Amino acid sequence: MAHSPRLRESSPRAHAVANGAAGPLHRDDSSPSPLDTVRRLWMELDPGHGPPEQVEAWRDRPHAKSHLYRLSLGPRASVPSVFAKVGPSPAIEPERVVYEELLPGWDASAPRYFGSRRSGDRMWLFVEDVGRRRIDAGDPHERRLASLWIARLHVFAATRAPFSPLPGAGAARYLSHLGAGRQGLLAGLRNPLITGRDREMLLALLDRLEIVEAIWDRIERACRAFPSTVVHGDFRPKNVLVRPQSTGLRLDPIDWELTGWGPPCADLAPSRGPDRDGWIDREVYRSAVKAVWPGLGRVELEHGAELGMLFRDLAAVDWQARELVRPHPDYLFRPLSHLRHHEKELTVAMARLARWVS
To answer: Domain total for the chain?
Structure first.
């Protein structure tokens, strides 16, 4: 979903409830299981839906930002299966806005949206399961399709400026990530399980953040050179699914948790790693937006991608650093590995920005 579901194969932790039989992994025995809740909310959306044949916990890690459940609907349903995504209402609200207020006004491919429900302080979104086939970033044709899709989103949304229901996605958002990431790294340094080279890496990351913060006024000024629009915020191959149709491939971007209103930089950034060209075909993108944004040339788009790379790294450092307080080494390997990667990426991003940010 958009944060449409983060689609992935079921892990050994995944479990199912058929006809309400199974219970959840993490709950108070006195409260309804999430699986029971998702069944109930699905029926409340439209009693004509009928009960799901099966509900699976697709992503339910205790510390995840959101949880995901897959409802198998059976052969007579309009779609074979649906994903239900749940999280704190403020975190899920931007996705609801995209599905209910943005996409219906635009003739674009997207997963079918079935609606939302609130349950306490949580929000549930129900979106079509569009399969597992991710776009192939190495295929020029598929890259072109993705580049056109995101360019058309940016142009369409810009005509509705400002799209006030969405949170800001400009430089201020990423400065907030920088500050939160610093606090997370400092907390990690107080964890006695983090020693040696891992500790040195965290200290190096703190140095990188300090340098970035020192030039933040220049980064903000650079962002003002770009138009504002709705950004997906995490437009990468893992979040762009494709389905074959008689007219060709249909793109279904998912996972809109990071959507917002701001410059398009994050959507132009490389998918992963400091690949200079990234996965968005900038010539295709430029051709699609030039009628509305004639000032965005090759150099400007390269600069936007470099800003986007910085922004994504700052957000990732924040999210991974939150895990550094975990009290068991088994839970530290993953965030430390990711932070080591982002420390290297930040170094590259800063070197590139230094050539033109002034």
So the answer is: 2
For 122-176, how does the pLDDT look when each residue is reduced to its tens digit (9 = 90+)? 999 999 999 999 999 999 999 999 999 999 999 999 987 666 789 999 999 999 9
Give me 349's structure tokens. Answer: 């991003």
Asked if 41 and 33 count as a contact pair (C-beta separation under 8 A), the reply is no
In a domain, 148, yes or no: yes
Task: Give the 3-state secondary structure percentages of the chain, helix then strand then coil, rounded to 5.
Answer: 45, 15, 40
User: How far is 142 from 155, CA to CA, in rounded Å?
Assistant: 20
| CA–CA gap between residue 131 and residue 8 (Å, rounded) | 9
Domain membership flag for residue 134: no
CB of 267 within 8 A of CB of 167?
no
Residues belonging to the chain = 358
Token couple for 152: 């058309």
When pLDDT is cut at 50, 70 and 90, the band that residue 271 belongs to is: confident
pLDDT at 21 exceeding the cut of 60:
no
- Asked if 67 and 59 count as a contact pair (C-beta separation under 8 A), the reply is yes
Going by the DSSP 8-state scheme, the letter that residue 104 receives in this structure is: G
